[in-house]
Amino acid sequence: MTAIRRVTGPIRLLSQRLLHLPRARILAAPVLAAVAVATGAPVAAPRPPLQVLRDPPAARLPLRTLDQMEAAVPLSLPAATAPPVAAPPELSQAPLAPDEVFGFAPYWTLDLAAGFAVGRLSTVAYFGVDVSGDGSLLHSGNGWVGYQSQQLADLVTRAHAAGDRVTLTAKTFDSDALHRLANDTGASAVLVQQLADAIRAKNMDGANLDFEGTGNSDRAAFASFIRRVADGLHAQNPHWQVTVDTYASSASDAAGWFDVAAMQPSVDAFFVMAYDMYEPGVASPNAPLTGYHANDQGAVASYVAVVPRQKVLLGVPFYGYDWVTADNQPNRQSPSPPTPVSYSEVAAGGHQTYWDSNGNVPWTAYQQSGKWHEVYYDDPTSVAMKARLASDSHILGVGIWALGMDGNDPALMAALVGNQRLVKPGPEGPGGPSASPSAPAPGGQGSGGSAPPPARPSPSPSPKPSPSPSPSPLIQPGGGGLPLPSPTPLPLP
Questions:
Q1: DSSP state string for 112-133
Q2: DSSP β-bridge partners for residue 246
Q3: Helix intervals (H) in 202-295
Q4: Span 437-446, average pLDDT
Q5: Phi and psi at residue 391, to the nearest 5°
């Protein structure tokens, strides 16, 4: 597999039936009863003490890698000829409500925006415009091209018509700029005014703040900066939604970049970036629900312990990671950093799918150029389990990074909002190691196959929505749901 790249050309739109469904709510509890039955999940044992997670290093900041990759490919989109249609007052003035479904629309998937299932969302966040160290918005780069585009204007209009609010993400990952923003009290005033002007120019409904730093030297100053910006934006319009993107570790890491407890009085919600939690040097899940050293259960538990649960959004990835490994057995060591791959790429590969019962996520293996690869990602079953966690935890809702990475296939979105028929997860792995590329299992099954998946699915026909193994019978959702499995830490090799 190759790195995620922008898709151009036509793509199959969602069916009219799906596009015109009323706003979906998170109904994953009954759906996950089927998952529990299918997996034979036992009744959960008493929960262990909260884990103390640590912030990711600079090289693994959750959104930085993809943004840097896409920023290197110039974006060409036509400029908007008119501003988008504004949200009606009953939408723009409504507070955030339970069962929020928050979806990021990054600039590199705007060419797919006509197929986004906006009827199943409640907030769309355009990602995003860059911020300099003095607080001013940079009127350059791919993010600004997307902000000025007709595609974004059309998306805002369509989202408002579907009953969604639209927010503008302000972002920077530059350590020098972050230090200046945190310590220059004038920078917050500049950002508030310029961001407010940009929000109004596109008839948007608030802001999302994505400022990913490391270390704790600016921890207190940065929390004060966020509060000044959030308070300033609410002073501009008290109905605007202001959310902040934070790490899965941020609520438990007292020495980390984000002090969520200090920021929470001023912000409406935290988008918890519960991904990029893989084990270093080991083929492992991007977003394990349970097990390993960091997982969704631990992240949610740590957040609700320090901030109001109605301010927590659990971020769910529509992508995974591809690891080079010595063979096709699970959790093998890898000599190089993994490559991000979208769900649509994985689904298009068509390889045998396995189930990691430790992390409750799927994985697959394949051969390319004489090397084995393992891919850990999320599919409809694992996404539904994450939605179940959010529902059972009574947090504000769930979020998506990112719209378009599923190729606009409806399966992941249906799982996220509890309307997906699920298949029984597949086997945990191949029967035995296959180190030789010359001896794959027959038909590309079992050992993962010898043909790599395509770099991107062909626009027509669209990739099949479910990478789960057949011929497992479909399981009908129903019942009251069973407890989620208990975490089982995985020792590093």
A1: GGGG--GGG-SEEEEEEEEB-T
A2: 272
A3: 219-236, 260-263
A4: 31
A5: -65, -45
